[in-house]
């Protein structure tokens, strides 16, 4: 993860699969049984996204769609299985991000093969999902960017905690200073403390110098 010269965040190497998986399970926790969530594990999510070559941006878009469905169609959200919702939201996000006819495009028959499901079932999942979201797949740039920043900051925090906040990279510091209010507040407190310490040292040093000069002037020639 790094910031580009233009101030944008490059997300190609960030472990979005794991963080998106956690956010997805958090969204589903109050809407499905514990057994259903147990079936939907990280291995399933990782294998599915690896085979389909899902981009980090598709992950972010799918999370936005899932939240939109949760708010607009609570009945559908409660009855759909976590595995199916994860799959169909990624399908929709990938299709929105990839133009029809491009090499990266994955059609429904390919999704069926990847998920080891029948094509008829995949088509049904897609129709039900689009109906639940009211065919509204447009996402404003601001919402998309906020979602991306939220995931990135969460990932950086987790990585920094693993290292006990030791050895922060320049890019990590720049991103946290830009987007993490708590980190900025801590840095501000540290800065204010350091300023006070430097002020005390400066005053002490000045007092010592003045004392030495005063002593030298009082000595006989």
TrEMBL record:
InterPro entries the record matches: Cyclin-like_sf, Cyclin_PHO80-like
Molecular functions per Gene Ontology: cyclin-dependent protein serine/threonine kinase regulator activity; protein kinase binding
Sorted UniProt keywords: Membrane, Transmembrane, Transmembrane helix
Highest taxon, organism lineage: Eukaryota
A cellular component term, taken from the record's GO annotations: cyclin-dependent protein kinase holoenzyme complex
Transmembrane regions: 193-213
Family that this chain belongs to: Belongs to the CNPPD1 family.
PANTHER family to which the protein is assigned, alphabetical: PROTEIN CNPPD1, PTHR15615
Name of the featured protein: Protein CNPPD1
Organism of origin: Tetranychus urticae (Two-spotted spider mite)
């Amino acid at each position: 993860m790094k910031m580009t010269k233009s101030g944008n965040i490059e997300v190609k190497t960030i472990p979005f699969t794991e963080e998106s998986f956690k956010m997805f399970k958090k969204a589903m926790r109050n809407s499905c049984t514990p057994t259903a969530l147990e079936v939907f594990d990280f291995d399933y999510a990782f294998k599915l996204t690896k085979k389909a070559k899902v981009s980090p941006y598709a992950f972010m878009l799918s999370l936005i769609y899932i939240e939109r469905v949760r708010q607009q169609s609570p009945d559908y959200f409660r009855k759909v299985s976590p595995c199916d919702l994860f799959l169909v939201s990624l399908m929709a996000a990938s299709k929105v991000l990839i133009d029809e006819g491009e090499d990266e495009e994955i059609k429904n028959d390919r999704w069926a093969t990847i998920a080891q499901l029948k094509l008829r079932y995949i088509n049904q999942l897609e129709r039900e999902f689009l109906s639940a979201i009211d065919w509204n797949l447009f996402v404003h740039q601001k919402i998309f960017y906020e979602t991306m920043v939220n995931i990135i900051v969460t990932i950086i925090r987790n990585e920094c905690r693993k290292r006990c906040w030791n050895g922060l990279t320049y890019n990590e510091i720049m991103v946290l200073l830009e987007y993490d209010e708590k980190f900025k507040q801590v840095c501000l407190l540290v800065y204010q403390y350091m300023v006070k310490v430097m002020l005390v040292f400066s005053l002490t040093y000045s007092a010592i110098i003045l004392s030495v000069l005063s002593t030298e002037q009082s000595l006989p020639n």
